[in-house]
Amino acid sequence: MVTTVSPITSIVENIGGTRIDLEGVVPEGVNSHTFEPAPSVATLLSRADLVVLNGLFLEEPTLEMARANMKSGAVILSLGDGTISREDWMFDFSFPESDGHPNPHLWPDPILALKYAELVKDALSSADPENAEYYGENLDKFGQRIQELDEKIRIAVSTVPPENRKLLTYHDSWAYFAKRYGMEVVGAAQPSDFAEPSSREVARLIDQVREARIPAIFGSEVFPSDVLETIANESGAEYVDQLRDDDLPGGPGDPRHSYLGLMLQNLEIMVSSLGGDASALEGFDPGPVFEGTSEAEYPQ
Ligand SMILES: [Zn+2]
User: Fold this and answer.
1) CA of 108 to the centre of ligand 1 (A)
2) Quick one: which of 111, 228, 271, 290 has the fewest CB in 10 Å?
3) Does domain 2-130 have CATH number 3.40.50.720?
4) Structure pTM?
5) Mean pLDDT across 222-232
């Protein structure tokens, strides 16, 4: 199996456990939206039985390479396209409707991530019917973990003063999350071409943060941003540069180096920065749901 970004690799790992051979191709810490796979990835794709992508136009060069190199009978599973229909596509700051490409970040919404996991379980079960029961058991366990996470996020977000339930981020990855949990994405600084925002846009964002009295604005590990720091300094908001959308916390082998760990850590940071109490998230286990150690490879 070949996957693209690390949160997807982690979801596939949770369902496939020790019974699949899994390799991610998008290294952590790179911009997945502009990622061009090295020619060596073609060899990897040519051997795969199943290639799992987010889709929704996130990994077009990898998708093209997969189509050109995969063996006959191999399957491409596009999770985002299988999870929501066109009517549910969200367009916003960095993904304007005029470009025709929806915001592809479904996975920060754990309920949509569970849908990803269901699609993965179905694909693994038809590729490898002998282990279908195992994949089904892992999906059940993953589903329980997601329900627990969803409940904990709801409690944690409810402690954030309602007027602070606003997100201004550099990278525009919280649209579906915000919709699920009653938060508002008031802006994203990164333009749709992934260049830096114009000085006029920066001035507009400063005014917006001041007017909305947002206590904190968020950058990410992958996109450190001087611009966001300027906006914070000028508006009086705190600049928190540690959210992640596809760069998992810690390193391979750490329990938090997982999709569940990514969400746990993001919520701890987000809720406490916005004046809430993140203690509902304590005790949540972000580690693998299966027994044993998988051989999943996360490129660094
Ligand atoms: Zn992204």
Assistant:
1) 10
2) 111
3) no
4) 0.97
5) 87
